[in-house]
Each structure stands twice: as structure tokens, then as C-alpha cells.
Design goal:
By secondary structure, this protein is an alpha/beta fold. It contains nine helices and nine strands.
């Protein structure tokens, strides 16, 4: 089986404090993979490592034929600075930077592409709106329009359907399935188990380390979900105990 992504005993974290431990596994080209787990399970940390924002503390991530700069990445809405004074049109146009360069001009062809992307996500007429005036659902539609223009083979979505209305979720899910039908690889961090079961054939259940990884029906068992919750709770209890009783700094 061909491999597009390979995680080799990867540990990721912040300030040398691991948040994802010893993850190993492979993702095939064209996969549609859900990454699920309790809050604090390390899903966002994993994605930041995958796209190159974080360097592994140990192990490695191999991207076969895909440079980190060529990955289309959708962060959580909370990570977007909505106070930045930029229009919807110009924000979506940043999805073309890899093709035209940061200093490249936006010509007629590029403007048509931006207009088509906005139309595809239901935002025609919003071109001149400042992004800070958008609702949560409109913001997410705009972010998906930018992803469309990146035209990437590997798409990474961090909580793409979180805190948006059902109509927006359904519309954006159709885009995800369309990308998958084109043979693109899509990874999405999700919470909705029913959505995962219905639309994502593969799942990684993460609780700071891999609990199960494979066919969704085999991963989303009650036993695995309970194990994931207990693993995260055990880690949180350990972290709290360490904070309350830090190791002595005295030399032995």
C-alpha cells in the first residue's frame, strides 16, 4: 500500500512538555481520516506537527511527496485574528499565494477564481465585508473558500464543524467529500461521533497517544472510547499532582 504520511514514534509538545506521545502509523494517499478524542487529547497538537508549525520532540513525520508548505491547513476559528482589517475577498485571495507569490498581483483570472470559490461556499456578495463582521458560520465558509484556492493534495481540518449551524456543516461536509472524491487526502479533527461513523471510513482515536487506529467501525467501540477517556483523565490527574507536588530541586 502506498503511504503519503508516516508517523514514526512521534512525540509532540510545547516547551519540552509532551502533548502527543509515541505515535506511529501511516496514512495512504486519498484517505479520509477522522481524528477524535477527548478535550486535551492532543488533536490540535498533532495537526500543528503535521503541517510543520511544531517540530517533534522525538521521532519523525514523513510527508511522501508533499512539502509542509503545500498542505492546506484550516486551524480552529479561535486561532484566527478576526480583528485584522482585511476584506473577505482579500483574505480568500491569500489562498493563491503559493501560486502567484505573496507580492504577486491579483489579475483577472485570479479574481475570477476568488469569486468562484466564494460562490461555491455561499458567500457571493460578501466580498467587501471586513472579516470581523462575519458570523461563525460565515467565517468558516470563508476559510473553506481559501482552502479551495490552495488546491492542495493534503488537507488538514481542525474542528471544521465546531460551533456552526447545521446548514453550514452540511454544506461544508459536501466540500470535504468532494475533495475526497478527487483523490485528495483529508484529515479532520472531530467530536461528532455520528458524523464520523456516517462519513469517515478511517479513524484515529487519540488520548495523548494512539488508543486505536483503523476502520471507523472497529475504532469507535464503547471499550475504546472508555479507554480514551480514562487515559486522558489519568494524565490530567498526574499533571495536577505534579503541579501540586513538584519534584525537589535539591541535589541527591
Amino acid at each position: 500500500m502506498a503511504v503519503q504520511l508516516q508517523f514514526r514514534d512521534v512525540t509532540l509538545g510545547y516547551d519540552r512538555h509532551p502533548a502527543v506521545h509515541h505515535l506511529s502509523g501511516e496514512v495512504a494517499p486519498g484517505a479520509l481520516l477522522a481524528v477524535i478524542g477527548p478535550n486535551g487529547a492532543g488533536k490540535s497538537t498533532l495537526f500543528r506537527g503535521l503541517v510543520g508549525i511544531l517540530k517533534p520532540l522525538a521521532g519523525s513525520i514523513a510527508r511522501r511527496g508533499v512539502d509542509a508548505r503545500e498542505i492546506a491547513y484550516l486551524p480552529q476559528i479561535a486561532d484566527i485574528d478576526r480583528s485584522f482589517p482585511i476584506s473577505v475577498f482579500d483574505f480568500v485571495g491569500t489562498g493563491l499565494w503559493r501560486a502567484i507569490g505573496i507580492l504577486g498581483g491579483i489579475g483577472k483570472a485570479a479574481r475570477e477564481k476568488i469569486a468562484q470559490a466564494l460562490s461555491a461556499v455561499g458567500l457571493s456578495g460578501f466580498e467587501n465585508r471586513v472579516i470581523g463582521t462575519l458570523s461563525g458560520g460565515q467565517m468558516q465558509r470563508m476559510l473553506f473558500a481559501r482552502l479551495m484556492l490552495q488546491d492542495a493534495r493534503l488537507i488538514v481540518l481542525d474542528e471544521p464543524f465546531n460551533a456552526i449551524d447545521a446548514k453550514t456543516s452540511a454544506d461544508l461536509l459536501l466540500l470535504v467529500k468532494h475533495w475526497h472524491s478527487e483523490g485528495r487526502t483529508v484529515l479532520a479533527a472531530l467530536h461528532d461521533m455520528d458524523l464520523v461513523r456516517a462519513h469517515f471510513p478511517e479513524t484515529l482515536l487519540l488520548a495523548r497517544e494512539s488508543v486505536a487506529w483503523g476502520a471507523t467501525a472497529q475504532v469507535l467501540t464503547e471499550a475504546n472510547l472508555l479507554a480514551a477517556r480514562r487515559m486522558c483523565e489519568a494524565f490530567d490527574d498526574h499533571a495536577a499532582a505534579c503541579a501540586a507536588n513538584p519534584p525537589s530541586s535539591r541535589a541527591a
